Amino acid sequence: MSNPVATHPTRTPTRAWVMLALGVAAQAAGTLLVSTPAYLIPMLHAEGMPLAQAGLLAAAPTFGMVLTLVAWGALADRFGERWIIAGGLALTAVFAFAAVPVDGYAGLAVVLMLGGAASASTNAASGRVVVGWFPRERRGLAMGIRQMSQPLGVAVAALTVPALASDVGATAPFVLSGAAALVLAGLCAWGIRNPPRPSAPAGAAAAATANPYARDGFLLRIHLVSALLVFPQFTLSTFGLVWFTAGMRWDATAAGILVAASQFVGAVGRIVIGHVSDRRGTRVGVLRQVALAGVVAMVALGAAGWAHWDAVAAAVFVIAATISVADNGLAYTSVAEAAGSRWAGRALGIQNTGQFLSASAVGPLVGALITVAGYPLAFGLVALTPLISLGLLPARDRHADDPDAR
Hints:
With 406 residues, this protein is mostly helical. Helix content is 80%, strand content 0%.
């Protein structure tokens, strides 16, 4: 049984909502730069760049993020969130502008990798702001809103990058992302304040600052669960469109509308499921239900595809895509609460790193599985990852800064 939320919840300061909005915008600005080269692939390929080379260029910012997520988290733990977010965005702007005059594939890849490395500052630090400023009974909702920053940044890139590149040139999107990062750096320096950190009880200073990974296996288990739950999410986002067009013989426009709609519903679903975890007073309990629903949804999707039930497949795809992203905010909040204010940045950095590494394996592994077994069976087999995660989930939540909480 989980602890119920308080009858009279702690009032959330108005400033906390302002800082949440700034955190969402900050991470969206970083995501804009990270996503820009992916939306330049059609133009670069048309100009003669091999598709594999263009793909590697698109992956350069993400590779930079993987290298620095934990380091940025450690800096946030040490120096606070305000200047880590603002300073990281300023660096992001510098590298975005630096990409404009670069001539040559290798040089551009290096600059984009550095830009991605700088943009990673917003990932762990903005999560710390949510956990620090929002009371526990509002964190699920707040973190669900924060998790919209990544799809928001991707959406802005999808709407602006191809048009700018076509009308102005391939360097114009980098100017846009640099300007956005620079503006948000200034706004975050003005509007974000480091949340107060709870003082350790008398005689417990050493325990309060102790490495939470040495205390028990809770954090490691949540990291592993999240890495497994990434597989359905990226399977659907990577292969959903091509499945409907090539496998189900849908019109490309109709398939694109369906996939885009699933992303929108999924973004709203993150907020709803975060609010549910607040109401029920447990992250792990709701996460267990999400994982179980993921098993059912992926099996149902495979069955609908095998039977060629188009309408059913479309409905189940939207449901499965929504479920596949619902775990992100829950796990992120759980990690931050379990790590405590003195370790949250590093723990969130490790959380993101594990998810990025797992996501990078989805393309080749699931792609090979689809080649051998076909889409329906591959989708059904991907259901094994949330099924395995059920056995790894801890039984109860952990709250490092509240020794009385379970």
